[in-house]
């Protein structure tokens, strides 16, 4: 068995930019990506593309310019839009996406959450394992995609996500279920990407093109973007029920989503519907997670879409509801809370797994090397930071903001180590060698160590498979859903059950883009029976 080697140090040793390798590389403009906006097309709004079985779709990644507030900045867009086109496909269908890289850096497309053929997962480090190599500028690659599960998914690059996602490379895929009664009927469906972007001195805060910065806390933005817009708005009619497919595409920010005054019903999560629909006032969505929410606007007026933390409230947009009543009302169906029979069946199967010891235990650990001398919180940060919001209704153990911006800006993979540690062997990150067979159901305990150098929440993502959350801090999960990403807050212990259904070599990583670039990843093998 051959392993992925995600150690970028080897690449960097050969890089002509190696001499820039110092702590303030991100400040060195000669080392950064182009910011030139001249001659670029303006970013457009995403098209909705309905693809049928065996269709071929052309996708390009290219530079665009986009106005955010008063600033015109260079960004990147799939097919020139931010977000990229929203693809609607039928469950069980297969399509081909012919992709062209018109950007100035190597890229790939990862189809987040889709249980695709391993060759098309978009993880370039697996090239020696039959996976695709990075696509050079000007290069092309043809992706063959399949859609076994209903729900909302998304696509993004898997090289320098910290840069490319911030620059606008993300788009949604809605997989329409084969069963017409899978979801309740609604008036309309909408995809919303939740994002933030860091603007400083009238431009994007600097990136180095040789290494990621802000690897300690991740790049928190200071402008919120919904569907790429700083002033997003949506029109609705009185009595309308709108299904929102929400995706957090931010580098690090966890959103606490709410629409005060409207009624929200949680109906689905990452990979399809929830076991029990429930009415909610707000909902946490960590990077790369998805939430499917039915929202009833039963009176006219302006409704704010908000991200609320224990300390402040951000506006993510506005819904303007007209007096004119909606033509066909789905209010009665909205009032009913449905249950999923396939997840009820899973719950019966789970009994044996709930109390048995885990097959694997993964610890999440941060280690800062020689950073304390720079002051600004330093090692002491966690003693005041961690748990300070414990017990708030918005969720404990979450860093909502960049609490140490100066130190964070100086952090790279050389002075900030993020580790996924296999407690069974002591191996960390790419030294972890897990191997399973198709059909295995693997119980994994994930422990977010509160006593590490910089404890914070980590959204842990498994490629290629789907999993159920069994328990949180020993308490059984009352509402199952198939997931591919799970947020583990500081100090928290989560048990998940991963269904090994898809053969290949697959990544596990933190979906905070800067933590992934900081080494917080490994790969596991799933072999055919
Ligand atoms: Cu992380």
Main-sheet strand order equals: 13-10-15-20-17-18
Number of strands: 33
Mean pLDDT: 90
Report the uncertain regions.
1-29, 373-395
Shape summary:
globular
The gyration radius over C-alpha positions equals 22 Å
Helix count equals: 7
Q: Please give the largest β-sheet.
A: 6 strands, mixed
Derived from helix and strand composition plus strand pairing, the structural class reads mainly beta
Terminal CA distance: 16 Å
Query: What is the share of helical residues?
Result: under 10%
What does this structure look like?
With 529 residues, the chain is mainly beta. It has seven helices and 33 strands. Strands 13-10-15-20-17-18 form a six-stranded mixed β-sheet. A six-stranded mixed β-sheet has the order 24-23-26-31-28-29, with helices on one face. A five-stranded mixed β-sheet has the order 1-4-9-8-6, with no helix packed on it. The longest helix is centred in the middle third of the chain and has 15 residues, at 341-355. It starts with 7 loop residues before the first helix and ends with a strand. The structure holds copper (II) ion.
Keywords:
529 residues, 6-stranded mixed sheet, globular, disordered N terminus, binds copper (II) ion
């Amino acid at each position: 068995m051959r392993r992925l080697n995600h150690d970028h140090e080897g690449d960097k040793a050969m890089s002509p930019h190696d001499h820039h390798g110092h702590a303030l590389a991100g400040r060195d403009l000669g080392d950064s990506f182009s910011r030139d906006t001249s001659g670029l097309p303006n970013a457009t709004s995403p098209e909705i593309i309905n693809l049928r079985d065996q269709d071929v779709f052309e996708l390009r990644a290219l530079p665009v310019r986009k106005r955010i507030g008063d600033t015109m900045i260079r960004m990147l867009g799939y097919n020139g839009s931010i977000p990229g086109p929203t693809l609607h496909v039928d469950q069980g269908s297969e399509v081909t996406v012919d992709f062209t890289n018109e950007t100035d850096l190597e890229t790939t497309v990862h189809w987040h959450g889709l249980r695709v053929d391993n060759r098309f997962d978009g993880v370039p480090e697996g090239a020696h394992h039959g996976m695709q190599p990075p696509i050079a500028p000007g290069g092309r690659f043809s992706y063959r995609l399949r859609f076994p599960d209903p729900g909302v998914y998304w696509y993004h690059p898997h090289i320098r996500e910290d840069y490319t996602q911030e620059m606008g490379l993300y788009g949604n895929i809605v997989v329409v279920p084969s069963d017409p009664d899978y979801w309740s009927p609604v008036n309309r469906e909408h995809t919303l990407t939740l994002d933030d972007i860091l603007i400083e001195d009238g431009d994007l805060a600097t990136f180095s093109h040789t290494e990621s910065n802000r690897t300690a806390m991740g790049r928190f933005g200071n402008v919120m973007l919904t569907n790429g817009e700083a002033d997003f708005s949506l029109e609705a009619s009185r009595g309308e029920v709108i299904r929102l497919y929400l995706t957090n595409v931010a580098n690090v920010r966890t959103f606490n989503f709410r629409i005060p005054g409207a009624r929200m019903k949680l109906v689905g999560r990452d990979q399809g519907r929830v076991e029990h629909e429930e009415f909610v006032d707000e909902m946490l969505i960590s990077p790369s997670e998805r939430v499917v929410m039915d929202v009833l606007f039963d009176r006219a007026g302006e409704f704010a879409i908000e991200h609320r933390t224990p300390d402040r409230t951000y506006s993510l947009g506005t819904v303007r509801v007209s007096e004119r009543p909606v033509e066909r009302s789905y209010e009665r169906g909205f009032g009913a809370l449905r249950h999923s029979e396939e997840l009820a069946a899973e719950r019966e199967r789970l009994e044996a797994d709930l109390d048995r010891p885990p097959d694997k235990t993964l610890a999440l650990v941060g280690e800062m090397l020689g950073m304390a001398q720079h002051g600004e919180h330093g090692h002491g940060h966690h003693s005041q930071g961690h748990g300070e919001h414990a017990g708030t209704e918005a969720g404990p153990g979450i860093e909502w903001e960049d609490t140490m911006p100066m130190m964070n800006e100086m952090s790279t993979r050389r002075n900030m180590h993020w580790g996924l540690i296999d407690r069974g062997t002591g191996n960390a990150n790419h030294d972890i060698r897990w191997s399973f067979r198709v059909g295995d159901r693997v119980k994994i305990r994930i422990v977010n160590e509160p006593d590490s150098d910089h404890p914070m929440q980590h959204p842990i993502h498994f490629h290629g498979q789907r999993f159920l959350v069994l328990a949180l801090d020993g308490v059984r999960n009352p509402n199952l859903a198939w997931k591919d990403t799970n947020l583990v807050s500081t100090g928290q212990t989560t048990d998940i059950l991963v269904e090994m259904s898809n053969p290949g070599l697959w990544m596990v990583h933190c979906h905070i883009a800067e933590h992934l670039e900081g080494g917080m990843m490994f790969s596991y093998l799933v072999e055919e029976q």
